[in-house]
Amino acid sequence: MTIEDINIDIYADGADLSGMLEMLKKPYIKGFTTNPTLMKKAGVKDYVSFAGEVLKEIRELPVSFEVFADDFPTMKEEARKLSSLGDNVFVKIPVTNIEGEPSYELVKELSKEGLKLNVTAIMTLKQVEEVVASFAEGTENIVSVFAGRIADAGIDAEEHMIRAAEICHKRYGIKLLWASCREVYNIIQAEKSGSDIITVTNDILKKCDNLGKDLKQFSLETVRMFSRDGHALGFSIL
């Protein structure tokens, strides 16, 4: 198996423009996502300018940009602004604000206006149900469930996503996204679960060349790495 054999849509997750453009060259990359945490890590200084630079280069594939505000009226205005930047923009709306108040009414309003939405930071199946019910008929939307964090809580993420997929696929135009990918095997799990999309960081994407690798050869390469690094340290045990 190689990465080209994977059927699920792989979105590159990051906010470093050079890294995004590097991934744009990969035929298996079908979209891009980013978020405030990734922007902070990448040192983005001006959000709108950054988004404009991205959209000058990435014109055909979907790109998700997230609102920054915490109050719903400001979120609404930010969402409209982000959506206006390009036809390929999906606006990321957190499933709640920092007080835990659901954003379902905002999602309903924006969806009625025809915005393409990516509702994010979803964990529970109840949240999935409420978000799906909030989308207007005939609109394109993404439901981002943080499977990696669900697994961090000791819950079977694959089984959780199977159930989430059943909810999402009852409605036309809704795609389920496996978020917070932790390892290459999550791509396999996401596809098996019926998820439509998985977001993958560049660091993990670079490991995808290992897909299908012979384990005996992989073992030898690992031993050689330890030997090389040991010699570089110059340590002596005896």
> Overall 3D geometry?
globular
Uncertain regions spanning at least 5 consecutive residues: none
Mean pLDDT: 96
- The separation of the N and C termini measures 44 Å
State the fourth-level CATH superfamily: Aldolase class I
| Strand order, sheet with most strands | 1-2-3-4-5-6-7-8
Helix content: 40-55%
The profile of the biggest β sheet is: 8 strands, parallel, barrel
The total of beta strands comes to 8
Task: Specify the CATH class.
Answer: Alpha Beta
- The portion of residues forming beta strands comes to 15-25%
Helix/strand-derived class?
Answer: alpha/beta
Write the element-wise H/E pattern from the N-terminal end onward. EHEHHEHEHEHEHHEHEHH
CA radius of gyration: 20 Å
What would a concise description of this structure say?
The chain is α/β, with parallel strands linked by helices. The protein has eleven helices and eight strands.
Question: Secondary structure elements and their pairing?
Answer:
Layout: E1 9-13, H1 17-24, E2 29-33, H2 36-42, H3 47-57, E3 63-66, H4 72-83, E4 89-94, H5 104-112, E5 117-122, H6 125-134, E6 141-145, H7 147-152, H8 157-168, E7 174-178, H9 185-193, E8 197-201, H10 202-205, H11 215-233
